[in-house]
Every structure is written in C-alpha cells, then in structure tokens.
C-alpha cells in the first residue's frame, strides 16, 4: 500500500503521479515496467517515488486494487439496475469492461501476465474467496434468488465463483487472441446460457 506521504500529496500532484504509473503499466506488464519512466512522466526525482511507494509492485497493486474497488461498486450498481438478475448483470458488466478504453491496456497487461496475487485482487470485483465477507453479503443481498436452482448461501457463493472464473477467463481469451468486442461478448453469452440451461439432461439423474 502507498505510504502516508502519498496520501498527503496535493490532489493535482497525486493525479499526475497516478497517471504516470498507469501509463507505464498500460505500456508494458509489471515485470517490464520502469520506475525511471514513471518518475520522468510525473516530473519527480526518483527518490520521491520511494517516499510514496516501496517499489513498482507496490504502485502496481495500489492501481489494481483501486480499479477493482471501483469495478466492484459498478457491478453492484448494475446488479441493482438489473433487478437482481445475476446473469444479465454479469453480461452487462462484462460488456462495460470491454468498452472501458481508459483501462483496456492496463487490464490487458495485467491479465496476460496473471499471477495469483493479481487474480486475487481483481476477483474481489464480483466475489472473493470468503463467503462470510462483506463483499459477498452485499452482493448476495441484491441477487434475485427466486429463479435460481440453489438451496443455500453456500451454493450461491459457488455460483458466483463459477461466474467470476468464466468472466475473467473470457477476458484473458479476448486479450490473448485480440477478439473483437462482439465476438468476446457472444462467447460469454453462450457460456452464461449453458450455465442457466445446464448441460446434463434431467433424465440423466433418474
């Protein structure tokens, strides 16, 4: 996390620094990023960077966590607008992410060089790994469960885990193969439809 000196910066200097950090991580993935490029773009001495962040990893995950937090509230807002329809929300949220040009290259570099820490940071956008978390409770409270074939909060938690996995795998596929937004969206819609319908005939359970 950033140091206190970062939060004490005037708003304009903070915006300039964040813009420089984002520009560098949008240009190249984390392991190729250069602190020299960041401080040059921000117009600050190299030593000042270390007054604000421990290292470039610290700056990267600050940016990623800020974005994930923003998208988490966007997801909840869309869920509310869709009157709790989880699948319509997932599709609308995904479409919004594809069209978010401001973050596209940053996300592309992050997702194509995915680590467990990166995945964990952004997974919290829709869900996280703790069904007792406030994030899960807030999401679950907005979901219309009347049409879902689930019998417990635990099952709902795992449904969200499945949807999260599908969403981010499709993003990776989109970035890796330069899919058009429409092709990417069509792929997600098909997979969401398969989940809704189920892939095993009911007679198979008899």
Shape: elongated
User: Averaged pLDDT, please?
Assistant: 89
Distance between the termini: 54 Å
Helix content: over 70%
Task: Provide the gyration radius in Å.
Answer: 19 Å
What is the compact description of this entry?
With 206 residues, this protein is mainly alpha-helical. The chain has helices at residues 4-7, 11-27, 35-42, 46-52, 56-81, 86-99, 101-112, 116-123, 134-142, 153-177, 181-197.
Provide structural commentary.
The structure is a single chain. The protein is mainly alpha-helical and 206 residues long. Helix content is 71%, strand content 0%. It has eleven helices and no strands. Helix 2 packs antiparallel against helix 3 and helix 10 runs antiparallel to helix 11. The longest helix has 26 residues. It is elongated and about 70 Å long. The mean pLDDT is 89.
Q: Which SSEs are present, and which pair or pack?
A:
Elements: H1 4-7, H2 11-27, H3 35-42, H4 46-52, H5 56-81, H6 86-99, H7 101-112, H8 116-123, H9 134-142, H10 153-177, H11 181-197
Helix pairs in contact: 2-3, 2-7, 5-6, 5-8, 6-11, 10-11
Key descriptive features of the protein:
0% strand; elongated; mainly alpha; 206 residues
């Amino acid at each position: 996390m950033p140091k206190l000196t970062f939060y004490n910066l005037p708003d304009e200097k903070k915006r300039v620094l964040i813009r420089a950090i984002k520009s560098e991580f949008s240009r190249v993935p984390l392991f190729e990023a250069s602190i020299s490029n960041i401080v040059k773009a921000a117009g600050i001495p190299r030593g000042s960077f270390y007054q604000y962040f421990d290292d470039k990893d610290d700056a990267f995950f600050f940016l990623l966590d800020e974005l994930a937090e923003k998208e988490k509230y966007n997801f909840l807002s869309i869920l509310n607008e869709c009157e709790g329809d989880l699948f319509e929300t997932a599709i609308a949220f995904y479409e919004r992410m594809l069209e978010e040009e401001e973050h596209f290259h940053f996300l592309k570099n992050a997702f194509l060089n995915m680590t467990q820490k990166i995945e964990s940071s952004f997974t919290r956008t829709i869900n996280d790994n703790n069904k007792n978390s406030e994030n899960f409770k807030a999401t679950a409270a907005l979901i219309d469960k009347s049409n879902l074939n689930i019998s417990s909060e635990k099952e709902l938690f795992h449904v969200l885990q499945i949807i999260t996995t599908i969403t981010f795998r499709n993003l990776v596929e989109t970035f890796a193969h330069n899919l058009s937004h429409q092709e990417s969206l069509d792929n997600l819609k098909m997979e969401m439809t398969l989940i809704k319908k189920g892939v095993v005939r009911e007679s198979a359970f008899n």
